[in-house]
Design goal:
The complex is a heterodimer of chains A (277) and B (310).
Chain A lengths: L1 H13 L1 H20 L11 H31 L2 H5 L5 H5 L5 H35 L8 H24 L2 H20 L1 H8 L3 H13 L3 H13 L9 E2 L6 E2 L3 H23 L3
Antiparallel strand pairs in A: 1-2
Helix pairs in contact in A: 1-6, 2-6, 3-6, 3-7, 3-8, 3-11, 6-7, 6-12, 7-8, 7-11, 7-12
Chain B lengths: L3 E11 L6 E12 L4 E5 L6 H8 L7 E6 L2 E2 L9 E4 L11 H11 L6 H13 L15 H13 L5 E5 L7 H16 L3 E5 L3 H7 L2 E6 L2 E7 H5 E10 L5 H10 L4 E2 L3 E4 L3 H13 L4 E8 L2 H14 L1
Parallel strand pairs in B: 3-8, 3-9, 6-7, 7-8
Antiparallel strand pairs in B: 1-2, 1-4, 4-5, 9-10, 11-13, 11-14, 12-13
Classes of the chains: A mainly alpha (277), B alpha/beta (310).
């Protein structure tokens, strides 16, 4: 397993897209170093002000970049499965005394681990810069490393299943683009926006069904920012307060997304184990 | 225990667009013993690669069973002592020759360390690739890639090696080197399962061959036995044959081919002896009597033609 994970790392590092990916991260880090100012006009801010400002910068950064980071990570890793399935590569891999589920899981974990390390680099650096500048050391922002990696892992399971069935990197990327930037955001606001326009029960059922079925990468972000700011998180259902306008997220989104990941990967493993190459 | 054992293997494919069923293997039963170099022959689409893929569980049979070292191929542990060089293999292009061997060595169950490094040195040396060990393989020629593939298949010192077109793209000197390496492996009691289009090469290397056509096993046996042409003899004489002798020979075998100093007969041992008696009684000195042999290529073409006619 470690051998395949290690080779997935090598494959990732050999791709030029990763150089671009890291240059982009480095630019973001440099912006944080030189452009973010934590000093107040009078001199030093109070701890409460610092805390609020740091949280605002952190959650603001996550709100803007969350989906983009997931999508960039998917673009850079989407070719791993189709390239593994190329004739002459897959034959050799299967001919080794390793079970097929182990091959697929190792490849999957290799990609997830690589993205995790990239997140440690990016988000860890941002946390360090903000903490040094503000003097406010709050480790909850580091949870975003895990949550972003988990959101990526969920979406990457879709790349795996599409890669296995179509052997196409492009299809996998397009489907993910559609899910991350179109379908999932629409489904997230179905109650507030879509249902105010659509009264048909069947259509409403379809929207609800898709919402609960599909992963919710954007809502992982809401859970993460709530954890950072210390806001309440409901257990099963998100809610919004009409008076204050405050939106409260629920644990349902990550739970159903992880279930989606498990079901998708289980089917991928079954498919890969039965397929003739 | 047989090294390879198959029982009534049957493989049916459904074509993607026409949905037509194609039989890639029909009721295929055969065994390979330890220490043999076994050659698999057949025209394109005969089922050779399908057979190798079934034996390595890359493809699954529709029916029947296959075992390696007595273990069902469905169990991945059956491949512990197996090496494989696929046709048109593709190694990760971002690796160096040395890294390729290390990667596939570890996948074969070898532990990274001095023992494996020693084996990598040995393999690279054997294939004359030592000076290229640190070079990315995308810079390798076809022949070098083939040699690296062969090194990869032998790295973990497997007891059984499947080679699919091992000399493909290799120059004649390289081919000779590969043949010598295979002979060396065989002398160490290893089993080699060879799939090659180069029949002369198979004839030189293999102990036993199987010929496949349209998924059927149509001939199997020792190379020596298969290439012997039964009842075809050539008699060479010292003197030039006279017209009288020629007529006497034709009286014995009307189909005999007669040259100035040579008689070819396919009429069997009795008539051969009759011809020899005639020559001797006519005072003709005999230089040699040989039983003719077919090349594997001749045998292959005849067998395939006959099967296609049937």
């Amino acid at each position: 397993m470690l051998t395949i994970i290690q080779n997935t790392f090598r494959e990732a590092l050999a791709k030029k897209i990763f150089i671009g990916y890291y240059i982009f991260y480095a630019i973001v880090i440099l912006i944080m170093i030189f452009l973010v100012n934590m000093d107040s006009v009078e001199g030093v801010m109070s701890l409460a002000d610092s805390k609020m400002l740091v949280h605002q910068v952190e959650t603001g950064f996550l709100t803007i970049s969350w989906n983009l980071i997931i999508f960039f990570s998917l673009i850079s890793t989407a070719s791993f499965i189709p390239s593994m399935l190329e004739k002459g590569t897959i034959d050799l891999l299967i001919s080794k005394p390793i079970s097929r589920p182990m091959i697929l899981i190792s490849k999957y974990l290799g990609a997830v681990l690589f993205v995790f390390i990239s997140m440690v680099f990016l988000l860890g650096s941002i946390w360090l810069i903000l903490s040094l500048k503000s003097g406010f050391w709050d480790p909850t922002f580091l949870l975003s490393i895990l949550w972003l990696t988990l959101a990526f892992a969920v979406m990457y399971s879709i790349v795996v299943i599409i890669g296995l069935t179509t052997q196409s990197t492009v299809v996998a990327i397009l489907v993910n683009f559609f899910l991350i930037f179109v379908l999932c955001p629409v489904l997230s606001v179905r109650e507030a926006v879509v249902f105010s326009l659509v009264t048909n029960e069947t259509v409403r059922f379809v929207f609800d069904f898709l919402y609960y079925l599909l992963p919710k990468p954007g809502e992982f972000r809401d859970v993460t920012t709530s954890l950072i700011t210390g806001d309440t998180i409901n257990m099963w259902k998100s809610s919004s307060n009409a008076e204050t306008g405050l939106f409260t997220v629920s644990w349902l989104s990550p739970i159903s997304s992880v279930l989606f990941l498990l079901v998708t990967m289980a089917y991928s493993i079954y498919f890969f184990s039965k397929k003739d190459y | 225990m047989h090294v390879i054992e198959t029982q009534n293997l049957y493989k049916e494919y459904t074509q993607k667009f026409s949905k037509q069923k194609v039989n890639a293997l029909n009721d295929f039963t055969f065994n390979v013993e330890q220490g043999e170099i076994f050659g698999l022959l057949g025209p394109n689409g005969a089922g050779k690669t399908t057979l190798i893929k079934i034996l390595l569980a890359i493809t699954f049979p529709t029916n029947g069973s296959a075992k390696l070292f007595g273990t069902d191929v469905k169990n991945h542990k059956a491949k512990t002592k197996v090496g494989y060089l696929p046709e048109n293999h593709k190694f990760p292009s971002y690796l160096t020759g040395e890294q390729v061997l290390s990667y596939y060595g570890q996948l074969s169950g070898m532990r990274a360390g001095s023992e494996m490094n020693k084996r990598i040195d040995e393999m690279l040396g054997m294939m004359n690739l030592t000076q290229w060990r640190k070079t990315k393989i995308k810079k390798y020629s076809k022949g070098m890639m083939q040699k690296l593939g062969l090194a990869q298949s032998m790295l973990s010192d497997p007891d059984l090696i499947f080679l699919d077109e091992p000399t493909d793209g290799v120059d004649p000197i390289g081919r000779k080197e590969i043949r010598d390496i295979l002979a060396q492996i065989k002398s160490r009691g290893k089993t080699i399962f060879l799939n090659s289009h180069l029949l002369s090469e198979v004839e030189m290397i293999c102990d036993r061959v199987a010929i496949l056509n349209k998924g059927d096993l149509i001939k199997e046996g020792n190379v020596e036995d298969l290439t012997k042409a039964e009842n075809i003899f050539a008699v060479h004489t010292v003197e030039t044959l006279t017209m009288e002798i020629k007529q006497k020979v034709l009286a014995i075998d009307g189909n005999a081919g007669i040259g100035e100093k040579e008689i070819n007969t396919e009429a069997g041992i009795d008539k051969l002896n009759g011809i020899i008696d005639t020559l001797r009684s006519g005072g003709v000195k005999i230089q040699s009597v040989n039983q003719k042999t077919n090349t594997l290529e001749e045998l292959f073409i005849n067998v395939i033609k006959k099967d296609n006619t049937n």
